[in-house]
Design goal:
By secondary structure, the protein is an alpha/beta fold. The protein has 12 helices and 9 strands. The protein is globular and about 50 Å long.
Length: 306
Amino acid sequence: MTIKQRRRRKPAAGAVTLQRRLECGAVVALGAVLSRAPIGVSSALMGAVFGALMPLTGRHRRVLRHLAFALPDRTAHEHRAIARAMWHNLGRVAAEAFQIERLIADPSRVTLPEDFDRYVSLAAEGCIAATAHYGNWEVAGVLPRLVGLPFAGVYQRLHNPFVEKYLKARRAPAYPAGLFAKGPQLGHTLVTLARGGAGVGLVSDLRERRGVTVQFFGKPAFATPLPAMLARVSGRPLIAGVLLRTGGVSFRVLMQEIEIPRTNDRAADIQTATQRLHDAFEGWIRAHPEQWMWTHRKWDGFDGRR
């Protein structure tokens, strides 16, 4: 066996399990500290930590590339300021993830739009709610709880099953209709829930190479068609929304109904609705670019670098 072959050998299963348990232990310990501190203190602390450390990493360089690619009208100085503010916001999101129950119990931290009642009426018999990695997307579960709407959420499985189990248990209270991992049967499950009167929440701004191509910041990008498909198939409305951080641990809800075409060409209808959804996201991101997670490889395959 050559040296190169030995280097390619995968670590033993026991070593991987031990590593994952240690990682989970660290997350649990951090969660114990952050969840016991006043929410404003833990949020500000993690914001400061992320704001100081993350600009030293390779991901910061990726963020700056993405900002230059999507916002060429901004200066390099503005790009750096947006990136630093973004890391600060993500640190706050990380801390607030351990305080979801407190956030749900304190709706005064969320300012609703003046026409919120209209959206409540739209969602009364079920809806598809699409959000982005903007402000604090974890707090979105507060809204349906305010009006008694049963709500289901979707999440991406983590590589570490122990961390996934721990974090899912913390997030589950925000989704009384269930919290589901992405998988082959997910579409059918979510359509059934929506037709049964539940709200279905999806974070919908990630790159999906097997999805559809949209124009995002004037550039082609891959997007998931799932929100539009669910709304088109279930007959329920598609509502886009984000929680804009207005300072500290306070937020303002921004919402927009996304019109779903219903022609004889279902694929074209889904494509059009997915583009409209991303147009809504882009408008909110342009207004407050520091609140979006620019680490995503949203333009991967189109930006000429990767």
